[in-house]
Amino acid sequence: MRKIETQMNSAIRSRRNWQSGNTRVEITADKRAIVYLHGNLIANVDNNDIQIFDGGYQSVTTKSRLNAIIEEFIMPAAGVFQKNWNWFVKLSLDFSNVIPFKSGMVLN
After folding, report:
1. Cβ atoms of 79 and 90 closer than 8 Å
2. Which of 45, 50, 58, 106 has the fewest CB atoms found within 10 Å of its own CB?
């Protein structure tokens, strides 16, 4: 995990506003952590679930930020991956539970 992603996850966990480079975490009044990359919404994190978005760009950086959040707050083996130019979400240690990525999907 990149240093910026470690800092991002720390801000989400401690529910504090944070920004570094192209990544920003904003905490709402109801204690949700909203994560932006280049000003585009990529995650909405609360205590029970994570809503993930591609922010309009299925880039390597977007995928890396989402994977850092998913691995920290959902499951270390889970994450977003790409195959044949399409994004998928792996929800298990092996690839037995894979679903197509859809911007706005909720993981818990």
Report:
1. yes
2. 106
Q: For the chain, what is the total number of helices (H) and then of strands (E)?
A: 2, 9
Contacts 24+ apart (CB under 8 A), 75-80: 78/107, 80/52
Would you list the domain boundaries of the chain?
A: 3-107
Looking at this protein, which amino acid is placed at residue 32?
R
CA distances from 29 to 43, 46, 98 (A): 16, 12, 34
| β partners of residue 61 | none
Residue that the structure tokens 């309009």 belong to: 56
The tokens for 52 are: 């993930």
Q: pLDDT tens for residues 65-92?
A: 999 999 999 988 899 999 999 999 998 8
Amino acid symbol at 15: R
